[in-house]
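Hey all, sorry for the wall of text incoming. These are the two entities for the joint prediction.
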Amino acid sequence: MATTLSGSGARRMESRGGEFQDCSESSSDYMNDEKEIIDSVLAGEHDLFAVLVERYQEDISQQMWRFSRDIMIRDELVQEVFVESFTGLESFRGESPFLHWLRVIAVRVGYRHWKNKEKQKKHVPLEDWDGAEYNWVSCPGEEDACDPEQTEYAGKLMFSLLERLKSEERVVLTLMYYEKSSVAEIAQKLDWSEAMVKMRAYRARKKLKKIIEAEDILEKLPWTV
Amino acid sequence: MDGLKVLESIVKKASAEKIPSCDVTSAVMAKLMKRTTAETTADDLLGYTPLRVIDFSFAAASSVAAAAAIIFALSYYQASSDFISSVVYNLYSVSNFGMISGV
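and here's what came out:
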């Protein structure tokens, strides 16, 4: 499927790896460009949707990695997010950046995935996962925190700890810890009350604290706290 | 040590984890193309979306089933063949009227 776009949209499309923001342009230009693309897609130029997928797939895939560490499932979830966003594109009002809207859809897709898994009582064993065969994107954050072995270990450990919680508790902590979302933002993304989010976060943290202390996780960490 | 401090330390490390890259553009576009093509084909052929076509199929199947049930009931109670014929004819007329009026 050919994707043709002239002007700034095409220029940004060449940029990959999560660094899509063109610093020389203001965010309002960026949003206008996005609005143009979305209007064109709604007018029937469906091919242009590829520009949005190209632009945001790394952001969404990083987000979905917190919902599944199985690369195949993660990619399926990312696809689902974009397909759902395409079908609901008419409801995008353009008041906030498209990525914010996509992230809300992504949280709901990921949460639904956990709920379905909970029903099936099926868990993907972490031992089956092998990160060595994949290409890695650049690692943000402090240099000393970026030891790949330690961060991968932490990622797996955190995933398995969160897996022991109920889906509704797990999603709250995932958004708090990885997306740095506030209580109000989580409430808005999941369509819950703020009191509900606070209560679930409190319960989830209490449960994790108990697990960490009971299983002496500190002794198993390959770094010092 | 307090479990929450250990948790914070794990979260900090886990947040810096390298994430496997992803390229789903062609897969997404293929799914969307398949979807829009299916909708367009059904729309061109019948003037309705696939969901509406399924609605029609269900409506047609249930009408046939209802007619069969009525005929079976009449036969079971040994109604005369003339009476059954008139019922069938009336059912046929009603269904024709329904189709013409767009019900």
